[in-house]
Design goal:
10 strands, two-stranded parallel ribbon, DUF4015 domain-containing protein, single chain, GH, 14 helices, about 10% strand, about 400 residues, TIM Barrel, alpha/beta
């Protein structure tokens, strides 16, 4: 049984790896680069497992290995990785060694397309919607069709897979961004999704669709919503209303061939990028497994993630189902796990990514853990080490000891 946990570089130390080994963890995923954020929501704005650093705002554009700058001379400056100025030394090297010493599998966790600073420095490398605007907070995501993006990511993966004898390489944010909305409908969210940059337009022609035609269809949907929302006296969130919205959404997708082909095109772009990067790892570190962190399968297709196709590339799929912190029903866990098992090749492992940070309690963890054991999955991974109170870690360790698999 896969028993994993995610760890940020500022929380790493050899004693932490030794402790996790004693708790029964088999895999630790270390972020080798990270997104720009402060770990404050949802949950308390503190780090439980770092005595020296109870709060931390991550650096922009930082990576945590000793980069060879010469490899990136032909890459635009805004896409070049910059070694961390705050977390000193080659943390990746220390991490891999510490895992080996403690009989834990080392996992290099690689946030792929979410890269705020690069898109701010050059907006033309980011995904854009039908109006040419960046559809997510802080302009977060790189475009998977952009040749400079693909080249930069390939060189980083090449360097990591050449330098380190890790056990698993884990791709995160290998998708398009969510559209942040408060009052909306699923059809409007889709209509405002990316990407319509010039590189996507060229790739779409090769795929057999015209993004300008797609743009016109989606613009009509947006304009309908402009008229609709402007006439409302108040925004409705009643269950009956939400049901009507989703029924309309379903009918539109059934009837609209151009939208369906556009969704498949986006999935194709994500598949191609993941395949390109995975081949590099297979070549340089053939013993390493490859995994991908994915949205729950019920909605992953809206972000360009096709479980069936992605499972042809990777050895392991991790489903991010954070329940209590995001006020989701625990019923999502069996639903998404069984849906994933229906979609994923039988030889590909499925791991549930569960929350272990407050307001999640030890009782919540036990309930979710016991529910997960009844499902057709191959393991559990908890997010994240630094955010997890000691009492929750103790509960996880106790549950691991009770499982004999």
């Amino acid at each position: 049984m896969y028993r994993g946990i995610w760890m940020h570089p500022w929380d790493f130390n050899r004693n932490a790896i030794a402790e996790l080994s004693k708790f029964g963890f088999t895999h630790v995923s270390l972020a080798v680069r990270y997104i720009e954020e402060r770990q404050n929501w949802p949950g308390p704005n503190i780090i439980f497992q770092n005595l020296q650093q109870r709060t931390y705002t991550s650096e922009e554009n930082a990576v945590y290995w000793s980069i060879e700058k010469d490899k990136y001379l032909n890459i635009p400056s805004y896409l070049r990785p910059i070694q961390s100025q705050e977390i000193k030394g080659d943390i990746v090297e220390k991490f891999v060694k510490a895992c080996e010493e403690n009989s834990i599998k080392s996992v290099l966790w690689f946030p792929t397309l979410r890269w705020e600073k690069a898109v701010r420095d050059n907006p033309f490398i980011g995904v854009v919607d039908i109006y040419g605007s960046h559809p997510s907070y802080k302009r977060m995501f790189l475009c998977p069709s952009n040749p400079d993006v693909k080249k930069a990511l390939s060189i980083m993966v090449e360097e990591l897979s050449e330098k380190y004898e890790f056990n698993e390489f884990e791709f995160d944010f290998i998708r398009y961004p969510e559209v942040p909305t408060t009052y909306s409908t699923p059809l409007l969210d889709l209509a405002l999704s990316p990407c319509f940059c010039k590189y996507c337009k060229d790739a779409a022609i090769d795929y057999g669709i015209n993004l300008e035609e797609v743009r016109k269809v989606l613009k009509d949907i947006v304009e309908w919503h402009v008229q609709y929302f402007s006439k409302l006296q108040e925004y409705c969130t009643d269950l009956d209303y939400c049901e009507a919205m989703y029924l309309d959404f379903t009918k539109e997708l059934l009837d609209n061939d151009i939208i369906r082909r556009w969704l498949k095109f986006r999935e194709n772009q994500i598949n191609k990028l993941l395949l390109q990067l995975s081949k590099i790892i297979r070549k340089n570190n053939p013993k390493a497994e490859i995994s991908a962190d994915l949205y729950p399968p019920s909605g992953s297709w809206l972000l360009g993630q096709d479980y069936k196709e992605l499972s042809k590339i990777v050895d392991r799929i991790k489903i991010m189902i954070y329940v209590k912190p995001f006020k989701r029903s625990i019923c999502r866990i069996p639903y998404e796990a069984m849906l994933a098992r229906k979609l994923v090749k039988n030889n590909v492992e499925i791991v549930l990514g569960l929350a272990s940070w407050p307001p999640t309690t030890p009782e919540d963890i036990e309930r979710q853990f016991k529910l997960a054991l009844k499902l057709p999955i191959d393991g559990i991974s908890f997010y994240s080490y630094g955010w997890t109170p000691k009492v929750n870690l103790l509960k996880i360790g106790k549950l691991f000891k009770e499982v004999k698999v």
